[in-house]
């Protein structure tokens, strides 16, 4: 660029943008609304983060994958509370990791809460750039610049950090994560003691009767950017499939299997190694080069299998090599989901049930020999040999050079103004200047729409997976004339607010502590309308409050808004009339999305929670004080018995820019005001 070289940076609207941090590039994910703000001419501001060193020592034991490492790190780093921090991985352990393994670790930054997860530039980086077909001059420039500018690993050994964490890679064992959270590590050796791999005899008896077993794995998917961009992980899955095929092992008939690599280069090196056919034989054919099961895009189940799950109320599960397994995310009929390495996913497709103790139980008997996981698991030497022989620079050039090639645009010019179609269920003229967004936010007399526990994810707030006929969105689409087989997923309808609004809190695994039925909190997409005290489906409650023009608030626990950088997790609540959310803590991207929609994030002071305050949803709430970056505000709680309580909370508008956007009413309103002011000037 004009003869100048400078460090690369990347800001992306996917929460897993930190994947790129493995290259030594500062890459962070932002919410779609924040990106929209930039597209409309404003800056993306961020407070100076905590910068934390993570010293990696030792090396993984034989047979341990990068997935095992990152799931163990995710548990460790969540406990160390690194939310919003920039992490720098360093030490002998980091130096020995391949770039693919580093990328697997960096990719899951949002799961352990960090904003960035950097590795230093070193010979591993250079080797990767060469392996993936980068231009030789560019690779030389990267190496020269990093060494001259003090960004090479050796020159950063003496860097001083206020906080350093230590993690020994040799302690990592083969592991899953789940259920429900990526940071809930589940060593496979603990499957029985945690009550998951139990009653296998019962499951086998059910299978012998032609039934699906308890704990049936209905989805086994090799998917997501976390693992399919790491050649070692994908090759390991292919080799395990090859070994299983040699023994004549097959997947269970109720398991829906798929392979969705993040890059077409993956298919090329699987073909080069002869492993694509081995995976296909077990049902793991390539279905797409995109986000699929990990983002709830697992597609429909066989109708007979789905009906059996419903009729028998089966505990059905999913196993995937993704990065998220939040409640209700993967498929509405998979009651729980577990994260695993790609080869372990293949093994579970053969086992067919989570009641199977994957390292101990017998996968099959061949010529009198009992076949267990250890008999088909490939060695590290096998994996490395195939990677070396089959992964080639020309594969990456073949895929990516055409992708970035300039093309003459000779397409017919069309009207830049979109012709809105009033009956469309996919793209509809948005309502962001109307309804709740057009009215004044008084922050007074707010009633709780929900009182929620810890770890509420964007999948609770606005799921992206399949739309069920019995859901509010399903009923709406039926009225619009769509047959159920064409419902598709919530994510595909996000351009139609009438469908997407009905996704708000539509997760069947939601726990709204206000939804008390017969003395117990009932799980589901439920709310309690106050002051009536009537429990009903969430969408009907939202409609009731919208008709009353009732301002709303949400009260929540810690880590509110984990997960995807999903705009509709903020849009849905704002359109419902939510003016503020008070929680014990927020995930960074969702917090900025809330501000982009004009919703005020408030944080309880340490030691103060909905439980210590005895909040049950019968109250009304006011917010008093001047909104400045991280200022103390007063949350006034008016109890039903007439008592009032003043609670000091932190205003989580963290920068002056965020205050400016919030006060305008959101990103679009800020842009409109700026535009009108510039026109007057």
TrEMBL record:
Single GO MF descriptor: iron-sulfur cluster binding
Residue ranges occupied by any Aconitase A/isopropylmalate dehydratase small subunit swivel domain in the UniProt entry: 475-606
Aconitase/3-isopropylmalate dehydratase large subunit alpha/beta/alpha domain location: 2-352
Listed InterPro entries: Acnase/IPM_dHydase_lsu_aba_1/3, Acoase/IPM_deHydtase_lsu_aba, Aconitase/3IPM_dehydase_swvl, Aconitase/IRP2, Aconitase_4Fe-4S_dom, AconitaseA/IPMdHydase_ssu_swvl
Enzyme class: lyase
Its EC number(s): 4.2.1.3
Cofactor(s) it depends on: [4Fe-4S] cluster
Catalytic activity reported: citrate = D-threo-isocitrate
Top-rank taxon: Bacteria
Signal peptide: none
Keywords for this protein: Iron, Iron-sulfur, Metal-binding
Pfam families: Aconitase (PF00330), Aconitase_C (PF00694)
NCBIfam families: PRK09277.1, PRK12881.1
Family from the record: Belongs to the aconitase/IPM isomerase family.
Name of the protein in question: aconitate hydratase
Species lineage: Bacteria, Pseudomonadati, Pseudomonadota
């Amino acid at each position: 660029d004009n003869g100048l070289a400078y460090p690369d940076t990347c800001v992306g609207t996917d929460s897993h943008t930190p994947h790129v941090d493995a290259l030594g590039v500062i890459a962070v994910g932002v919410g779609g609304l924040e990106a929209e703000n930039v597209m409309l001419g404003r800056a993306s501001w961020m407070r100076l983060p905590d910068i934390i060193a993570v010293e990696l020592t030792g090396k993984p034991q034989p047979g341990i994958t990068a997935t095992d490492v990152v799931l163990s790190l995710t548990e460790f780093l969540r406990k160390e509370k690194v939310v919003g921090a920039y992490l720098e991985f360093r030490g002998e352990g980091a130096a020995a990791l391949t770039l693919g393994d580093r990328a697997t670790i960096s990719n899951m930054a949002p799961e352990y809460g960090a904003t960035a997860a950097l590795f230093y530039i070193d010979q591993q980086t250079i080797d990767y750039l060469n392996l993936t077909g980068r231009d030789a001059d560019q690779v030389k420039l990267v190496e020269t610049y990093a060494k001259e500018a003090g960004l090479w690993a050796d020159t950063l050994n003496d860097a001083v950090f206020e906080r350093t964490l230590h993690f020994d890679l040799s302690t990592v064992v083969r592991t899953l994560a789940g259920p429900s959270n990526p940071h809930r590590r589940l060593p496979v050796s603990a499957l029985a003691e945690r009550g998951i791999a139990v009653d296998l005899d019962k499951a086998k008896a059910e299978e012998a009767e032609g039934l699906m077993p308890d704990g049936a794995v209905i989805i086994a998917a090799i998917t997501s950017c976390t693992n399919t961009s790491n050649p070692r992980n994908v090759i390991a899955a292919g080799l395990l499939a090859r070994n299983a095929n040699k023994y004549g092992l097959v997947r269970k008939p109720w398991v829906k299997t798929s392979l969705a690599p993040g890059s077409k280069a993956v298919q090329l090196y699987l073909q080069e190694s002869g492993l694509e056919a081995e995976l296909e034989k077990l049902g793991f054919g390539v279905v797409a080069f995109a986000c699929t099961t990990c983002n709830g895009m697992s597609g429909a189940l066989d109708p007979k299998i789905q009906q059996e799950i419903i009729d028998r109320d089966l505990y059905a599960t999913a196993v995937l090599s993704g990065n998220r397994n939040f409640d209700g995310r993967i498929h509405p009929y998979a009651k729980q989901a577990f994260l695993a390495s790609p080869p372990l996913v293949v093994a579970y497709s053969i086992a067919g049930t989570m009641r199977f103790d994957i390292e101990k139980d017998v996968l099959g008997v061949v010529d009198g020999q009992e076949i267990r996981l250890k008999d088909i698991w490939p060695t590290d030497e096998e994996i490395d040999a195939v990677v070396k022989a089959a992964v080639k620079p020309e594969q990456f050039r073949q895929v990516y050079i055409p992708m970035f090639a300039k093309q003459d645009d000779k397409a017919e010019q069309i009207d830049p103004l979109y012709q809105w179609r009033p009956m469309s269920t996919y793209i509809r003229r948005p309502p962001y200047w109307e309804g709740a967004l057009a009215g004044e936010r008084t922050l007074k007399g707010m009633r709780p729409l929900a009182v929620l526990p810890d770890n509420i994810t964007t999948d609770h707030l606005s799921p992206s997976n399949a739309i069920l006929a019995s859901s509010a969105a399903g009923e709406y689409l039926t009225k619009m004339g769509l047959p159920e087989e064409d419902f598709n997923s919530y994510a595909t309808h996000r351009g139609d607010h009438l469908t997407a609004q009905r996704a708000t809190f539509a997760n069947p695994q939601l726990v709204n502590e206000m939804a008390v039925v017969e003395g117990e909190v009932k799980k589901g997409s439920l709310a309690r309308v106050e002051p009536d005290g009537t429990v009903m489906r969430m969408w009907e409650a939202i409609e009731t409050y919208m008709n009353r023009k009732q301002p709303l608030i949400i009260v929540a626990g810690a880590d509110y808004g984990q997960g995807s950088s999903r705009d509709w997790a903020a849009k849905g609540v704002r359109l419902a009339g939510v003016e503020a959310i008070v929680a014990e803590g927020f995930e960074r991207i969702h917090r900025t999305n809330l501000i982009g929609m004009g919703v005020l994030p408030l944080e309880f002071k340490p030691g103060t929670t909905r439980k210590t305050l005895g909040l049950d949803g019968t109250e009304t709430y006011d917010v008093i004080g001047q909104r400045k970056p991280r200022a103390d505000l007063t949350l006034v709680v008016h109890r039903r018995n007439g008592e009032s309580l003043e609670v000091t909370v932190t205003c989580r508008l963290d920068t002056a820019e965020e205050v400016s956007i919030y006060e305008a009413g959101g990103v679009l309103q800020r842009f409109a005001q700026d535009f009108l002011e510039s026109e007057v000037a």
